[in-house]
Amino acid sequence: MNAPTILIVDDDPDMRLYLRGCLRGLGEAAGPVIDAADGVEALRRVRADGVGLVISDVVLPRMDGLGLRQAIRGDSVHARLPVLLISGEPEAGLPSGPDDAFLAKPFNARELLAAVRRLMNMDGNGHP
Predict the structure, then answer these.
(1) pLDDT tens sequence across 50-102
(2) How far apart are CA 19 and CA 59, in angstroms?
(3) Domain around 65
(4) Closest CA to 78 of 4, 2, 3
(5) 111: left (phi over 0), alpha (psi -120 to 50) or beta
(6) DSSP 26-57
(7) What's 33's domain CATH number?
(8) Contact 90, 120 (CB under 8 A)
(9) How far is C-alpha 11 from the chain's CA centre?
(10) Total number of domains constituting the chain
């Protein structure tokens, strides 16, 4: 079984690099990691690249993370795609559901990996 592709969406290249580093903690359970700098590019990648999880900042150019999540939920093919939103602002009223999670910055690698494992239905060892 191939591990799912993870899409990181953030306009800050340093944050994309940090998230990539954190995801190494998943070991072999992590599939390929790809990235996008804004929500429009991310939505294109979701539709074209067989993504299994989206990790997105809320504040993005062209289409923000909330708009990206809404576009994914409105697409019948990708409606159940897990989305982890991250933001430097504590967000009240963010969408939540079985395929959603939210992390407030600053967060640590352990918090990120716990959210990713939950969304990808992995046990603590990275197995589905």
Answers:
(1) 899 999 999 999 999 999 999 999 999 999 999 999 998 776 557 677 889 99
(2) 16
(3) 5-119
(4) 4
(5) alpha
(6) GGGG---EEEESSHHHHHHHHHHHTEEEEEEE
(7) 3.40.50.2300
(8) no
(9) 14
(10) 1
Q: Tell me the two tokens of residue 3.
A: 């591990």
The residue with tokens 């992390």 is: 103
Residue 108 has which token pair?
Answer: 């640590």
Any idea which residue has 């716990």 for tokens?
114
Which H or E run includes 73?
helix 65-73
Q: Which two tokens stand for residue 81?
A: 């795609």
Query: 80 in a domain, yes or no?
Result: yes
Name the 3-class secondary structure at 76: coil
Closest CA to 68 of 14, 8, 5: 8
Edge-to-edge strands, sheet with 83-87: 33-36, 5-9, 51-57, 83-87, 100-104
Per-residue exposure over 24-34, b if at least 16 CB sit within 10 Å of its own CB, e if not = eebeebbbebe
